[in-house]
Design a protein that fits this description.
Order of helices and strands: HHHHHHHHHHHHH
Strand content: under 5%
Distance between the termini: 33 Å
Shape: globular
Number of strands: 0
Helix content: 55-70%
Structural class: mainly alpha
Largest sheet: none
Length: 251
């Protein structure tokens, strides 16, 4: 049988499309996030190695997100709806995170008698983090393994193991903070959040949210680049991107 050669970036785009579906995001979310992330990397002065990390992180960030979807669905019901809620939530804000869990549990127990609902939600909340942390850790581990199978460097794979970490240390599963979170991770998290918030809340509300999360979820220096150069970074970002557009960005 003749061997078929596939360009790795093409395969990563296929995975990106699949993760858009799995996470309940709009079509081309990962591709738009990649375009914005590469623009942001250039504006922030990332070198070629840094931009290579950003490119792979942007396309493969959620590659492991289906690793244990059955567990997420068993604990919280409609996992797609929950992932949509989590996409725009400040996970470092305890109250916002609890609201996401409560909405998910209300959906899960919607058919239960009303008098039983408070106790069921209270029980679900008491186990929410205990259930969630291993699931998120599994996503990171599977993403790393996919990166290894694609032949990515140890450094690029390490970034795929930090997909839920945050600048302020309030991420999961390890609570890494500051420079312990890899530059590509910090930048892609910000870029993808911009894409989500722009679609759901509009430009002004998005910029306000980025400013509020500056030096929290996001590294201050990177957030400042978004706030100061929004026009150039966001130009045409809501359009359709072709395969050739994404291939041209590959360092």
């Amino acid at each position: 049988m003749a061997e078929t050669a596939v360009r790795r970036a093409d395969f990563m785009m296929l995975l990106a499309y699949a993760t858009d579906l799995a996470t309940g995001q709009a079509r081309d979310f990962a591709l738009r996030g990649c375009v914005l992330a590469m623009r942001l990397a250039e504006a922030a002065g990332f070198d070629e190695a840094g931009r290579r990390g950003v490119y792979h992180q942007a396309l493969l960030r959620y590659a492991g997100c289906n690793a244990d979807t059955h567990l997420l669905a068993a604990a919280f019901g409609d996992e797609i709806a929950m992932r949509q809620d989590l996409a725009y939530t400040n996970l470092g804000d305890h109250h916002q995170l609890v609201e996401v869990f409560v909405r998910a549990l209300n959906r899960l127990f919607a058919d239960m008698p009303a008098e039983q609902l408070p106790a069921l939600i209270e029980h679900g909340l008491s186990h929410a983090l205990h259930t969630s942390v291993p699931i998120l850790a599994g996503h990171c581990e599977v993403a790393k393994r996919i990166g290894e199978r694609l032949g990515l460097s140890p450094e690029l794979c390490a970034g795929l193991g930090q997909i839920y970490e945050r600048w302020d240390g309030h991420g999961l599963p390890h609570g890494l903070a500051g420079d312990a979170v890899m530059p590509a991770v910090r930048l892609v998290t910000l870029a993808q959040d911009v894409v989500v918030l722009l679609r759901l809340r509009g430009r002004e509300a998005m910029l306000k949210t980025i400013a509020e999360r500056r030096d929290g979820a996001y590294e201050a220096a990177l957030a400042d680049v978004v706030l100061e150069h929004a026009d150039a970074l966001l130009a045409g970002i809501d359009g359709d991107f072709r395969r050739e557009d994404i291939l041209a960005l590959e360092p």
